[in-house]
Description:
The chain is α+β, with helices and mostly antiparallel strands.
Amino acid sequence: MEGGWPTVGGFLLCLTVSLLLQGRANTFTINCSGFDQHGVDPNVFQSVFNKKDFRPVINFSIPTRINISFTLSAILEVDAQLQLLTSFLWLKLVWDNPFISWNPEECEGISKISVATKNLWLPDIFITEFMDVDKTPKGLKAFISNEGRIRYKKPMKVVSICNLNIFYFPFDQQNCTLTFSSFLYTVEYISLGMEKEVWEITDTSQDIIQTHGEWELLGINKATPKKSVGTNLYDQIIFYVAIRRRPKLYIMNLLVPSSFLVTIDALSFYLPAGSQNRAPFKITLLLGYNVFLLMMNDLLPASGTPLISVYFALCLSLMVLSLLETIFISYLLHLATTQPPPMPRWLHFLLLHCTSPRTCCPAVPQKGNTGLDHLPGVKEPMELVGKLPGPRETELNGCPGSTRAQQEDKAQKQHLVSLWVQFSHMMDTLLFCLYLLFLATSIVTVIILWNT
Ligand SMILES: *[C@@H]1O[C@H](CO)[C@@H](O)[C@H](O)[C@H]1NC(C)=O
Ligand SMILES: *[C@@H]1O[C@H](CO)[C@@H](O)[C@H](O)[C@H]1NC(C)=O
Ligand SMILES: *[C@@H]1O[C@H](CO)[C@@H](O)[C@H](O)[C@H]1NC(C)=O
Ligand SMILES: *[C@@H]1O[C@H](CO)[C@@H](O)[C@H](O)[C@H]1NC(C)=O
C-alpha cells in the first residue's frame, strides 16, 4: 500500500498533465500562422479586443491575480507645507488573460508581441495617496506572451500625500507610503501580488536614481493588509518609501554662518567692557544676524517648527541677552564712575572674598576697613549722596580748613569707584560665564535632539 502511493500519485499527475496539455493544445485562441510574412492579422485578436470591457476570466469566482512592481526613478520634490512628495516611478503590472494563447512553434517562434493598451482590459490599480490628476501618457503598449501573460508598464509622476515631519530638519528622514489598490474590485475580483521582491525594487531604484539631489532613497518596505470599506474588502500593497535629506547645503548655508556669528558674539565679550565699542559691535552683529535670517528664510521649511528654528531663536536670544548684558555693564560702569552709590555691606564682603586670593587674607580686613568705615548700613545712600556735593561746595567756597576732610572724602570716593568698577568687571565675567554655559547647554541639547 505504502509503496503503491507514489506510482498512483505519479500516474494521476501524468494523467492530469497530459489532460491539461491536451486541453491547452485545444484552446489556442490565436491562429498566428503567417505572422512572419504578412505581419499580425488584426482579425485574429479581434475576439480578444472585443472583450476588453470585461475582466478577462473564465470562471468569475476566481479573482484575477495582478502582480505589481515599480522602479522609483527620481525623488523630485518634498513639499513640507502641502505635505506632498513628488516622485517619478515606472509602474509594472502583470496579469493573465486566459483568452490569449498561441503556439509559438506555429508562429515562427514568436512568443510575445506588443499591443496597444487601448485594446486591452486594464486593471484599475491606483495609488491611494495620489493627489494629482493622472497624467499617464496616451498610446502605451503592453507585451502579451503566448501564454496570455500581459506585462504593462507605465511611467507615473506621483504626487502623493505624505505625513512629513520636519522637526529634525535638515537632518530629517521621511517615511512615505505608496498604497497600491484597486478602486473598484474587491478581493473577490482582484488579488494583488508582488512581481519582484521588495529588496529588488529597492536595489534597482537606488541604482536608477542617478541624481544626487536633496533626497536619498534609504529603502523600501512593504506591508499587505487588506483594506475594508464598509462590508467590502480590498486587497492592497503598502510600500513604505524611506528617504533621507542630504543636509550638506543646509549645514553650509544655515548652521555654519549662524555658528560663526554666535562665536563672534561670544568672543566680543573680550572687548573691554569700559570701551565704547562693545555695544555698537554687538548691535551690528545682531543686525547682521537678522539679515542672515531674512535671507535664509527661503531655505527653511515653510510650515511647522523645526528644531533649527528653535536653534536660530536661541542664537538670536543669546545675542540679545549679550547686548542687554553689555548695556547693563555699561550702565554699572557709568554709575560707578560718576555717582557711585554706597556699596551694601554684603556685596562688599562678597567682593573682597571673591577677588582676593586666599593667600593674602590678612590684607583683606585692612583693605576692607576703609571701605567698611562709611558703610554702617544700607540706609545710608541718601546721606552719602547728600554728602558728596558737600566737599565740592567747600572747594568752591575755597575754605582751606576743609582740605583734609575733602581729601579724605575724595579718597573714599575713589575707593568706592574702584570697588564698583571691580564689581562691574566681576559681573561682566560672571554673566559671560553664564552666557557660555547657556550657549553650551543649548547647543548640546540641540545636537542631542538632532541625533535621536
Ligand atoms: C490558421 O489560419 C490559416 C489561414 O490563415 C489556416 O490555413 C489554418 O488552418 C488555421 N489554423 C488553425 C489551427 O485554425
Ligand atoms: C469556478 O471556481 C469555483 C472555485 O474555484 C468552483 O467551485 C466552480 O466550480 C468553478 N466554476 C466553473 C464553472 O468552473
Ligand atoms: C504573481 O506572482 C506569483 C508569485 O509571486 C506567481 O505565482 C504568479 O504566477 C504571478 N502571477 C502573475 C499574473 O504574474
Ligand atoms: C515606516 O513606517 C512603517 C509604519 O509606520 C514602519 O513599519 C516602517 O518600518 C517604517 N520604515 C522606516 C524605514 O522607518
